[in-house]
Design brief:
Strand order of the largest sheet: 2-1-3-5
Number of domains: 2
Distance between the termini: 67 Å
CATH topology of the largest domain: Rossmann fold
Low-confidence stretches: 166-194
Order of helices and strands: EHEHHEEHHEEHHEHHEHHEHEH
Largest sheet: 4 strands, parallel
CATH architecture of the largest domain: 3-Layer(aba) Sandwich
Strand content: 5-15%
Structural class: alpha/beta
CATH class of the largest domain: Alpha Beta
Mean pLDDT: 84
Number of strands: 10
Radius of gyration: 20 Å
Number of helices: 13
Helix content: 40-55%
């Protein structure tokens, strides 16, 4: 691939909703044309379900669909092998094995850039090795890698700052971050009343911000008069401080972020209730969801668990959501 202007496919799923701006900026700065798959739709979901193993959770199945959509349209796929993105924490094993799973499922399968990202022991060294590995797959080295890394870091940190903002109020979910396609939190549909209920909506970013896969739960809450607060609206310090209440450190990076956001929001008197969006078949969520619900029950904070799979009907989900919001309204006026 050296000295070639080539098309690199990036599936719009899973960790794209956490690191999409970084990946796009980095590869574009190295001269690649980055092709991101379109937002999830029924066609992509059905394609993924038909290719994936039955034991995979819904987000992984959808990832298969995005990768399959890109396969015939690009020269290579970028599917990093994510082992750990921070010290002493790890990512779900199914995500670690995605490159191998896709090679077995996609026929024909384009070349896959499967750079290993492992920051568990020495974060700085692990990140440097991952960056060099990604650049090496494109035949690039030297100062161009440093310039691309600096550009990616700048855009990524600006994107994170835009998500957090200055308060817990949600940003606009429908507003796309320029060129990345990563949705921000909240929804532009519907209007908040001046005394809107503040609702914490927690879950994985690839559920909350994928409006088809996650059925746009933040948008639905806002339409029902709620003011949405998402994990990305909180700072790392707020989340980590809240997690210190737990008897031991959670093993999974995303599980700890979700649990920390839940614990923090439970302590806020102006937060009326919590909604936890999870995917059927997610092992870490089966623990984190039950743990969060137990803490919410002890503190008297209303808690709604919504579990999604490829068979979930939107009508039933809407009914549960409306009933929960009605209950919170009655609870406030009681």
């Amino acid at each position: 691939m050296k000295n070639k202007k080539w098309r690199l496919g990036v599936p719009r799923a899973l960790f794209y909703y956490y690191y999409g701006p970084w990946w796009e900026t980095f590869f574009e700065a190295l001269g690649a044309e980055v092709i991101v798959s379109p937002p999830t739709c029924r066609e992509i979901m059905d394609l993924g379900v038909s290719l994936a193993v039955a034991e995979a959770c819904l987000p992984v199945k959808v990832y298969y669909g995005h990768a399959a959509w890109l396969a015939s349209r690009v020269d290579a796929l970028f599917v990093p092998r994510l082992v750990s993105v921070e010290k002493k924490s790890f990512i779900c094993p199914k995500l670690m094995g995605l490159p191998d799973m896709l090679r077995a499922a996609l026929k024909p399968c384009p070349p896959i850039i499967d750079t290993t990202v492992n920051l568990a022991r020495r974060p700085e060294e692990g990140l440097a090795a991952a960056v060099q590995g990604m650049a090496r797959s494109l035949g690039v080295k030297g100062y161009r890698v440093d310039l691309a890394t600096a550009a990616a870091e700048a855009r990524y940190h600006a994107w994170l700052a835009g998500q957090q903002g200055d308060s817990m109020a949600a940003a606009d979910c429908r507003e796309e971050e320029p060129a990345s396609g990563v949705y921000r939190s909240g929804s532009s549909q519907g209007k908040e009343s001046r005394d809107a209920l503040q609702i914490g909506v927690i879950g994985h970013g690839y559920l909350l911000y994928d409006q088809y896969l996650g059925m746009d739960i933040p948008g639905k809450v806002k339409k029902l008069g709620g003011k949405v607060i998402l994990p990305e609206n909180l700072t790392t310090l707020q989340v980590e401080t809240a997690c210190r209440q737990l008897p031991k450190r959670l093993y999974w990076t995303l599980g700890r972020k979700i649990m920390g956001a839940a614990l923090y929001l439970m302590e806020q008197e102006n937060v009326a209730g919590l909604i936890h969006l999870t995917a059927f078949g997610c092992g870490p969520d089966s623990l984190v969801g039950d743990l969060a619900e137990r803490y919410a029950r002890r503190r008297g904070k209303p808690f709604l668990l919504l579990t999604l799979d490829e068979h979930t009907g939107e009508a039933g989900l809407n009914t549960r959501l409306e009933a929960f919001m009605d209950m919170l309204c009655r609870r406030r006026t009681a």
